[in-house]
Amino acid sequence: MPARSAFDKLWDEHLVADLGAGTGLVLVDRILLHERTGGIALKALAAAGRRVADRAQVFATMDHVVDTRPGRTDETLMPTGSAFIRETRAAAKAARVTLFDLADPRQGIVHVISPEQGIVLPGLTLVCPDSHTCSQGALGALAWGIGSTEAEHALATSTLRVKRPKTMLVQVSGRLAADVTAKDLALYFIAKLGSAGARGHIVEFAGAAVKAMDVEARLTLCNMAAELSAFSALIAPDDVVFDYLHGRPYAPRGKCWDTALSAWRGIASDEGAAFDAEIAIDGAAVEPMVTWGTSPQHAVPVDSAVPAFADVMGRETPESYERALAYMGLTPGTRLRQVRIDAAFIGSCTNGRLSDLRRAAAILTGRKVAVGVKAICVPGSTQVKSQAEAEGLDQIFRDAGFEWRESGCSMCFFAGGESFGRQQRVITSTNRNFESRQGPETRSHLASPETVAASAIAGIITDPRRLEGS
Amino acid sequence: MAGFKTVTSLAVPLIRDNVDTDAIIPSREMTSVSKSGLAGGLFAGWRYQAVGSRVPNPSFVLNDPRYQRAQILLSGANFGCGSSREHAAWALAEYGFRAIIARSFNPIFQGNCVRNGILPIELDAAALAIAPQPLTIDLERQSVRDAAGAVRDFEMDAQAKEMLLDGLDAIDLTMKHGAQIAGFRATSRRRRPWAFLDGADNR
Fold first, then answer.
1. Inter-chain contact B185–A27, Cβ cutoff 8 Å?
2. Which residues in A lie closer than 8 A to residue B157 (C-beta atoms)?
3. Which residues of B touch A20 (CB under 8 A)?
4. One-character DSSP codes across A348-417
C-alpha cells in the first residue's frame, strides 16, 4: 500500500461508498448539536417524518445564546433566545438524544465539552452544524463543520456525502518562545496564508512546536482553521492525547481502551505520504499577535504598526483595506501598543479552557484592570468554571476587576442581547473580528488570553512580555 | 425543491472580498427556530440605517431601485466565510437570489447553497459588474452569458450540479444505500467498538 497521510487513513476507514466525481459517502461516528443551529435540524428532521438513525451517537448542548450572568434561567438577553433553548430541549427529548442542558455540570461550549467528556476520540468522524468543529481535529479525529440540512442528513443516515478535500501539511519546526501561544501561531499563519488560504483543504499541523503543545493548545490551533476557510484541521494523535482522554466519561475502558490505543497509534501520516500542499513555519519566529482590521488575516505582531497599503498589497484590495481601517478607526503607521481599549474579553471555543484561564490569571495576579475598561471572563464550560473556582482563579479575575460568568459562547458574537457598544474597542480571545461581530460597530482585536489580560491591565494593546512590573 | 435550469436577471454587484455569513445575516436577525422569515434580515447591518430598523440605507446596493427583484448576486473572494449558519443561504433564497457569482466561496456556505437551490458560480464577478446588465445562467451548459452575448464557462462539481438540476433531496438519495450503510457499520463496529456508544462493547 502506498504511503498514506493521517487524513487518507481516516477517509479510507469511513468510506462507505464512492459516489463518483471525488465525492464519498462517509460514515459519521458522532453528531454534536447546539441550540442555535442544531435544534432546527432535529425539528426539521421530525417534520419530514424521519428518525434519528442512532441516537447514541448524538449529543446536544446549550451554548450559543444562553445567558452567562450568574443565576441564569431559560430567559436570555437576546430577544427570542429562550425559544431556541426550549425548542432544542423539546426536540432533543423527543428524539431521545443526550442533552447537556443549562443546569447540567457537563454543559458548555460544544467544542470544549466534547474533548472534556471524551466524546471526540482519535480516528472518529465527528460533525456539528458549527464552523469551529475543526477544533476537535486536535485529538486526531476527522471533525468538520456543516450546515443544518447536512446535520439532518447525518442524523437520518449516520453518513454524509462529502467531497474529498485536498490535503495540506503545515510543519511548524522549533519551539514557540515563552509567552507565545497557539493563538499567536494561528494568527501568524492566517496572516501569512490569507483568510481563504486553506480553502477546501484538510490541514495537518505537525512538527516539533505542535508536538510540544498540550491538548488545549492544539484545540486552539485547529479551531482557527475555520478562519482559513479550511475543510478542517487535524493533528496526529500521540501520548499527549491518549493521556488526556484516559478515564474520560465516553472514552473506552478496560480491554477496549487497549485495543483502541493500538489502533490510534497507527493514525499518524506515513513517512513519504503525499500532500497537495506543504508549508514550513519556523515556530521560533512567531511573536504575540493582534489583529488591526476586520478579518482574521489582518494580524500583525503586537509590537508593530497598523500596516500601510503597500504592506498588504496583493492580499487586500484598496477598497477592503480602506474599509477595514475606517471601520476600526485606525490610521496606517499607528503603533498597536499605543491603541487604547474600552473592553477585554476572555472566553470562547478558541480560548476559554482551563489552561487559557490559568495563563491569563498568572498575568492578572496582584494587578487591576485599567480604569474605564470593561473586562469579562466567560469559562468555556461549566466544568472549566468549577475547576477554575477550585483553584481560586475566579478570585484572581474578580480581584483584578473582571466579571466572572457562567459558561457559554457569550459575547464572542452579538445575537441581539449583550454587546460592547458602538465603536467600543475590544481586545478579545475569540476567533472573529468581522464588522459588528461583537456588537453593532464594535471594534474587535483578536489576540491570545495573555495579550488580552495584559492589555486589560494597561488599558492599551500590550505585549504580555512587556507589561510593566512583569 | 424545483430543479435549476436557467435564470436570466440583472445581477447585484456587491464586489467585496470575504463577505462573511455574519454580514449576510447578523445573528441578531435569527429570531426564530425556523428556516423562513429571514429575508428581512438579509445584509441587515449594511442594508438598513440602524440596528433593528428597517429604514433602507440608500447607499447600499441592494436598495438601488435598478436591482429590485434581481436574482443574481455578484461578489468577491471567499464569499460566505465565517459561521456555518445555514440561515445565510435561507435568507438569500427567500429574498429571491437563485445564483451567486463570486471569485471563490467558503466550502460550508457553498454546500448550504446547493442544498437550498442556490447556484454558487466561481468566476471573476468584477468583470461582470462593470455595468448593470441582464445575465443568463445556464446550469446544464455551465455558462454565463452577458448582454453583449459574451459567454463565460464555469466549473461545477458534478454531484452539486446533479443535485441542483434535478432538485434532489440528498437524504432520499442516501437512504437508497441503507443496506450498504448497515453492513458497513456492522463491520466497522467489529474493527472499532469504541466508536459505537449504543451498546456495552466499548467497555
1. yes
2. 21-23, 163
3. 158-159
4. HHHH-SHHHHHHHHHHHTT--PPTT-EEEE--SBHHHHHHHHHTTHHHHHHHHTEEE--SSSGGGS-SSS
Record: contact A200-B77, CB cut-off 8 A: no
The interface predicted TM-score (ipTM) is 0.95
CB atoms within 10 A of CB A269: 21
Q: Smallest CA–CA separation between A54 and chain B, in Å?
A: 7
Radius of gyration of chain A (CA): 21
Q: Look at strands A201-206 and A166-173 and give their pairing.
A: parallel
Structure pTM?
0.97
What does the pLDDT look like over B66-75, one tens digit per residue? 999 999 999 9
Q: Which amino acid is at B158?
A: A
A410 touches chain B (CB under 8 A): no
| CA angle, residues A139, A346, A226, in degrees to nearest 5 | 45
Backbone angles phi, psi at A15, to 5 degrees: -80, 105
* Distance (Å, whole) CA B53 – CA A456: 33
Measuring CA to CA, which residue among B141, B149, B109, B104 is closest to residue B24?
Answer: B109
Interfacial A residues in 353-382 facing B (CB < 8 Å): none
- Between CA A443 and CA A414 the distance in angstroms is 12
Between the CA of residue A252 and those of A113, A121, A259, B193, B201, what are the distances in Å?
17, 9, 9, 9, 9
B34 to chain A: nearest residue by CA?
A40
Residues of chain B contacting A27 with CB distance shorter than 8 Å? 181, 184-185, 188
B90-132 confidence digits (pLDDT tens): 999 999 999 999 999 999 999 999 999 999 999 999 989 988 8
Q: In what order do the strands lie in the sheet with A343-346?
A: A402-404, A374-377, A343-346, A425-428, A443-446
Contact B28 A78 (CB under 8 A): yes
All residues of chain A having their beta carbon less than 8 Å from the beta carbon of residue B32 are 80, 83
Q: Could you tell me what percent of chain A has a pLDDT over 90? A: 99
